[in-house]
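Researcher: Last one for today. Full complex below.
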Amino acid sequence: MSERPIIAVDAMGGDFGPSVLVPGALEASRTDNLKVLLVGDTPRIEAVLAKSNLDGVDFDIVHAEEVVLMNEHPADVLRRKKKSSIQIGCRLVKDHVADAVVSAGHSGAAVACGMFIIGRLKGVERPALCTMLPTERTPVVLLDAGANVDCRPYHLFQFGLMGDAFARDILNYESPRVSILSIGEEEGKGNSQVKEAFDLLKGAKNLNFMGNAEGRDIFTGDLDVIVCDGFVGNIVVKMSEGMAKSLTHMLKRCFKSSIPAMLGALLAKGAFKSFRKTIDYAEYGGAPLLGLKNLAIVCHGRSNSLAMTNAIRMAGTFVRKKTVERLAETILANEELTRFSRSN
Amino acid sequence: MSERPIIAVDAMGGDFGPSVLVPGALEASRTDNLKVLLVGDTPRIEAVLAKSNLDGVDFDIVHAEEVVLMNEHPADVLRRKKKSSIQIGCRLVKDHVADAVVSAGHSGAAVACGMFIIGRLKGVERPALCTMLPTERTPVVLLDAGANVDCRPYHLFQFGLMGDAFARDILNYESPRVSILSIGEEEGKGNSQVKEAFDLLKGAKNLNFMGNAEGRDIFTGDLDVIVCDGFVGNIVVKMSEGMAKSLTHMLKRCFKSSIPAMLGALLAKGAFKSFRKTIDYAEYGGAPLLGLKNLAIVCHGRSNSLAMTNAIRMAGTFVRKKTVERLAETILANEELTRFSRSN
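Model: Here's the assembly. Have a good evening.
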């Protein structure tokens, strides 16, 4: 592994394509001392580069002639789109040309390519998408955010272990408070899957397990890692986005209802701006797919330059800190418990 | 059934007990021409009545000598606490002394007593807690909000049917837009339970089924009824409460960060107040348990007088409109499809 981490960037994904993703990648390279491999349609990437400031940027272009469409099935992308930017990005990681890959494209396809091209860590059956949500204090890590719709208890268990390692290494949380999302605080509340995962998490080595979390606990900042299956996690993540947006609309409408309120809103413009920044997903970059042999980060389709920069920065930290080794260690240390649950 | 609906009110439940619930009940009786049966400890209820304005109020006291504690198991309450206010309230409904019961007590106990004392509608296996959430436009009905942790597809199907009937009768929505909560808009997305329920809802009679909803669609106001199992529903409802609270805290903090912002907040005080009113659960009263022979409404433990008044008013409308008959009709009209799915 080189001293300067090399990050493959799927330049074709997302709602905005190269015009937004390439500048984000260049910025990350410049400020965080990373090399970026811009994977995608060479002419389109070059067109963006021609208009960019390339001082202090380390990059290469890797041509990809196919593009993944949003309505394609992940398995089809994996089978047929061998020359797509996401497949090529993952193969660069597999072949140790790059240390990690970041994509804002079709997230299902990115998960599938990550799992089957980069491959899973030994002992991990289900890699999990790991998102960060804003809270009243520091961000909370929630996983799985949608990679696995149906989960077994030991999958949830491993999500907890990996979320813990991620929070320690990448967010610098000292002893992350880990919990499992359920419908009541007391032990014994939840569906059968959650109840069994609870017991496993309780028995895990070196885990600061706090027990069940409820929906109302997600945003208080009293928890650092929240475990759930990908069905629930996907709903939670999309709901938090949608609700923040709707509440902002509702608030705006109230502020337009009277002259004093409008004047007040004008005076408080800065406050609104800093509020929006607090809840802006772009500040948190992308969602790492934890449990692979090397890192893949899946970004929001709506990713802007800032989101892309932050995601690539996170990839750089991940590589520098060798977080994959930490993930492998925690999975291995808890192998016995996992195996016991799997055989039940 | 008398012309003036008779609503049994569990006066002992909730965080605040009779001092808050009794005034709420009296207000509903006065303004909505209802008779309320105040069920609970007679001396405590009388103490509140002595300080109340009783003009135009129709009420009786029904003594209950036992109180349900929040840490008791629902099944234990059902088996042992025969003289608790919630059991007596449900028996008043069963014996046709009251037309409906409203409780802000232990919600699990209220659900259990409703199911086993009042009894289920013919053809309904799983009654569902039906909540209303604020959106950018009119409130959305979400069910099940926590009565059933593990559901089969035909349970979800019946939740959709009942939510539709409720939205028509009680919220006066003309052709409610019904959807099922999943992880993607396209047909075929979701876990196996949701995919099968999707097919059933698609085949339902007289149902305006819109397909899958995602977490981000809950608060836009583009949907009227959202179906999910009680595990997901409980998380969604508690998360929406918690997130509204946390966002308000975060917003307040931003407004305290500078003098202009503070001045702005002062000027916009009225706007904030109307915003809080929009997202205040108390405006929506309680959660009816749909699928019983007669109505039980389960209110939030933190219910204030306004929430209690609104819940009792809803019970009155439910009784006057004979909404139970509408529920029975829609369950019966779709019996064949339900039976087909159940036998699979």
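The first helix of chain B runs from residue 18 to 32. The radius of gyration of chain B is 21 Å.
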